[in-house]
């Protein structure tokens, strides 16, 4: 736990960083260039000079595919100091749904730890009276390392943090999950054991969390299916036989003992008719839920709020495998109001102005020159570029952000969506944030059916002409639903509401029959879990997993299509 002076120095550090953003960014750029100007990549553009103006003039803006050949060379055994960056080795990232190799440095995991400490200072400032002896029940899943062709081991950024010595030192005192359960390669065994340990220490838990909100909801669903067995294990002090992982079994053996009082108590809570506020009942000292609830995670907040019984949902940070970027200075604000204040000391940021309303979220032709961190304008949207010592130079992360204000001299951003995620069946393009907005409008209609939308994704079906948008929905009955069924009229109205909420070009194309009627396909419960299993089996990190808003791989589509239980179409063209 952080001492008071440590917590204050965290807050002071934040003030210092945000006040001196420009100087810190300039200094950082100087350091990156002087260390790496001799690499093959930068030599091509800077001819050995560590000059910021030349950097801006000559170094191209790139996407992952552009630098992949360089990353592959390092993965194949070439020294990174010759190719991309002085200190780089290889790690993995998953943004965009596809696993990929990315450069990392030993420093990047340490920076993440520093970042976490700053977040923690803010939580202490805002949440206040946290029990000194309390624990965090964070659901964490390490991902097995990937071996590159030359035998280098690459792991996800979350896994590198879990492995780090500073994290391991604080784990037993501050977290309910033992190390072995986080590193258990079987995610079901891992989740079962992490829930079990969390229940056994329920009186100490002051925070429940995961990186992304979807992981907490998955764990609640898993708990719904397994609470009887968990209680029986607590009653007998014995772990179920199907938990075969030796690490989990050893961890359990060291602390499990029969506890029928606790088992009775949990059983009573779970047998309640309503699971409204169940998290608060099971872990009564919990002060907040810590998980990213913004962007694509926003869809999970309604359901999470139901289980949390009024606990604040704290979206603490905005980051990615390529760098930790922003921190939420107002952790108690509503997910829809969250802005992230960028920290200028780890990554050099640039921002490409874009038109938010532009159909394709394309860069605005008139004004595409990237601007520096301190020069962004409130109310405008930008695509994020990062340059850092890991060997990424003017690299598009793929996220679109909107400036909401400044803290001292540092801008604050709301997450808008992923840039390269788009749905399209003709020449029109619909961005992630467009889909998100339209589905948010339509799902309000489900209230009258006593249903909640728990997960969704989309797909551009071009198997017939004209093509049409397909939105897959997984639904759940609200408490007190009393068996109300899917009413075709309401479902058709949902399809129309989505169409009405989409952008002008979509509506126009639809009216002119260049795009056919939008379809909602209802899938069985558990479908999105199967989808996640598929992506995890292909290398995605469970801790960092986010359901793709737009589905591309054929196999993923098969998983969804094989579980469809109803289909509905819009019956009228949208209004223009
Ligand atoms: P990964 O590199 O796999 O960990 O994924 C990083 C991506 O997750 C980012 O580029 C964003 O698209 C998304 N992400 C991370 N943090 C947030 C956040 N606070 N709000 C919304 N999306 C986020």
Query: Which structural class do you get from the secondary structure elements?
Result: alpha+beta
Strand order of the largest sheet: 9-10-11-16-15-14-12-13
Mean pLDDT: 89
What proportion strand? Answer: 15-25%
**Unreliable spans:** 357-365
Q: Report the major sheet.
A: 8 strands, antiparallel
How big is the Rg? 24 Å
User: Compounds present?
Assistant: adenosine monophosphate
Helix content: 40-55%
Descriptive notes:
With 576 residues, the chain is an alpha+beta fold. Helix content is 40%, strand content 21%. Strands 9-10-11-16-15-14-12-13 form an eight-stranded antiparallel β-sheet. The chain has a four-stranded parallel β-sheet with strand order 3-6-7-8. The radius of gyration is 24 Å and the shape is globular. The model is unreliable at 357-365 (pLDDT under 50). It binds adenosine monophosphate.
Brief sketch in words of this structure:
With 576 residues, this protein is of the alpha+beta class. Helix content is 40%, strand content 21%.
Helices, strands, pairings?
Blueprint: H1 4-19, H2 21-36, H3 40-46, H4 52-58, H5 64-75, H6 80-83, E1 89-93, E2 100-104, H7 106-127, E3 135-138, E4 146-147, E5 153-154, H8 157-163, H9 165-174, H10 179-182, H11 187-200, E6 205-212, H12 213-236, H13 246-255, H14 260-271, H15 278-282, E7 288-292, H16 301-308, E8 313-314, E9 317-320, E10 323-327, E11 340-342, E12 348-354, E13 371-372, E14 381-388, E15 392-407, E16 410-418, E17 422-423, E18 430-431, H17 432-443, E19 451-461, E20 468-477, H18 488-501, H19 504-511, E21 519-523, H20 527-537, H21 554-561, E22 564-569
Parallel strand pairs: 3-6, 6-7, 7-8, 20-21
Antiparallel strand pairs: 1-2, 4-5, 9-10, 10-11, 11-16, 12-13, 12-14, 14-15, 15-16, 17-18, 19-20, 21-22
Helix pairs in contact: 1-7, 7-8, 11-12, 12-14, 17-18
């Amino acid at each position: 736990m952080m001492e008071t002076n440590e917590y204050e120095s965290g807050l002071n550090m934040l003030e210092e960083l945000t006040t001196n953003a420009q100087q810190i960014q300039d200094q950082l750029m100087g350091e990156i260039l002087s260390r790496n100007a001799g690499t093959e990549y930068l030599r091509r553009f800077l001819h050995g000079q560590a000059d910021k103006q030349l950097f801006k003039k000559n170094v191209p803006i790139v996407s992952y595919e552009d630098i992949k050949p360089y990353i592959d060379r390092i993965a194949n055994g070439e020294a990174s100091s010759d190719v991309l960056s002085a200190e780089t080795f290889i790690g993995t990232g998953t943004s965009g749904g596809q696993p990929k190799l990315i450069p990392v440095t030993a420093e990047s995991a340490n920076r993440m730890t520093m970042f976490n400490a700053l977040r923690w200072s803010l939580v202490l400032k805002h949440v206040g009276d946290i029990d000194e002896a309390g624990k965090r029940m964070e659901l964490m899943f390490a991902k097995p390392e990937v071996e590159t062709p030359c035998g280098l081991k690459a792991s996800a950024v979350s896994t590198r943090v879990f492995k780090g010595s500073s994290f391991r030192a604080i784990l037993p005192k501050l977290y309910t999950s033992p190390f072995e359960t986080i590193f258990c390669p079987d995610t079901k065994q891992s989740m079962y054991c992490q829930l079990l340990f969390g229940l056994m220490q329920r009186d100490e838990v002051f925070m429940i969390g995961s990186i992304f909100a979807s992981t907490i909801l998955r764990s609640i669903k898993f708990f719904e299916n397994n609470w009887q067995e968990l209680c029986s294990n607590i009653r007998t002090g014995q772990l179920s036989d199907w938990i075969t992982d030796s690490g989990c079994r050893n961890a359990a053996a060291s602390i499990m003992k029969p506890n029928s009082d606790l088992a009775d108590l949990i059983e009573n809570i779970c047998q309640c008719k309503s699971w409204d506020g169940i998290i608060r009942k099971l872990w009564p000292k919990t002060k907040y839920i810590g998980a990213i609830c913004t962007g694509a995670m926003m869809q999970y907040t309604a359901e999470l709020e139901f289980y949390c019984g009024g606990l604040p949902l704290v979206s603490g940070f905005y980051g990615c495998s390529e760098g930790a970027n922003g921190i939420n200075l107002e952790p108690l604000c509503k997910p829809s109001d969250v802005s992230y204040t960028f920290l200028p000391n780890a990554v050099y940021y640039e921002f490409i102005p874009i038109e938010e309303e532009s159909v394709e979220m394309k860069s605005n032709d008139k004004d595409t020159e990237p601007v520096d961190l301190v020069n962004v304008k409130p109310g405008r949207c930008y695509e994020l570029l990062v340059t850092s010592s890991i060997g990424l130079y003017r690299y598009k992360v793929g996220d679109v952000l909107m400036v909401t204000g400044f803290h001292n001299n540092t801008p604050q951003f709301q997450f808008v969506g992923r840039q390269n995620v788009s749905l399209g069946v003709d020449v029109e393009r619909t961005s992630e944030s467009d889909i998100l907005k339209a589905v948010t409008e339509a799902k309000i209609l489900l209230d009258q059916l006593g249903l909640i939308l728990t997960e969704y994704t989309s797909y551009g079906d071009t198997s017939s002409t004209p093509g049409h948008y397909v939105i897959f929905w997984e639904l759940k009955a609200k408490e007190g639903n009393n068996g109300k069924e899917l009413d075709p009229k309401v479902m058709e109205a949902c399809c129309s509401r989505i169409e009405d909420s989409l952008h002008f070009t979509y509506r126009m194309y639809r009216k002119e029959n260049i795009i056919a009627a939008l379809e909602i396909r209802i899938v069985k419960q558990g479908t999105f879990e199967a989808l996640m299993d598929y992506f995890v089996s292909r290398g995605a990190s469970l801790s960092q997993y986010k359901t793709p808003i737009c589905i591309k791989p054929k196999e993923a589509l098969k998983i969804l299509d094989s579980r469809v239980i109803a289909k509905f179409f819009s019956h009228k063209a949208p209004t223009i």
